Amino acid sequence: MADHSAEAGSITVLAGPTAVGKGTVSTFVRENYPEVSLSVSATTRAPRPGEEDGVHYHFLSHEQFDSYIEEGAFLEWATVHGLNKYGTLKHTVEAAARAGQKVLLEIDLQGARQVREALPGAHFVFLAPPSWDELVRRLVGRGTESPEEQQRRLETARLELAAESEFDQTIVNEHVETAAAELVQSMGITPRTA
């Protein structure tokens, strides 16, 4: 994707450690700020309860994902926690940006670094937890990973937290509505009041 400044300037990248609430904040933005185009990532992981294909993620087989990699169809992609692949399809981001929409990419740290290389004019937001203990509580509390997977994710989270300085802005996710309001405000959108 060529770095057209008007297009890159309409793209915001939201990243942060595992279990910080990136998906929850993004869902709140999708449901309350229809003027934001939320990029739907592709992944090889299985859907969690309540997740829908094409809404929360494009759920792909490993073979499908690898085929897209070979075609150069991703703006960014990564193998996360040594298990599954996640990626952002170029064509969906390009189309939304060309249409003048504010685009939000919710991705991991590796992906954010790749997007910075491709689109240095994008705005990069780090979503941080209120504390390490709260991050651990959120990860364990959601109950979607085995104890081994939880441990692997927490080890990754320590490294991800150390990358905060690479971002243009940090938002602490203490309350979803407040974090979402700060995020859309950083995108040039007036937050809604309750």
Automatic annotation (TrEMBL):
PROSITE patterns: GUANYLATE_KINASE_1, GUANYLATE_KINASE_2. Its main location: cytoplasm. Gene3D superfamilies: Guanylate Kinase phosphate binding domain, P-loop containing nucleotide triphosphate hydrolases. The keyword ATP-binding applies. GO terms for molecular function: ATP binding; GMP kinase activity. The keyword Cytoplasm applies. Keywords: ATP-binding, Cytoplasm, Kinase, Nucleotide-binding, Transferase. It comes from the Bacteria. One of its GO terms (cellular component) is cytosol. ATP binds at residues 16-23. It is an enzyme of class 2 (transferase). Essential for recycling GMP and indirectly, cGMP. Belongs to the guanylate kinase family. This is Guanylate kinase. It comes from Falsarthrobacter nasiphocae. The lineage of its organism: Bacteria, Bacillati, Actinomycetota, Actinomycetes, Micrococcales.
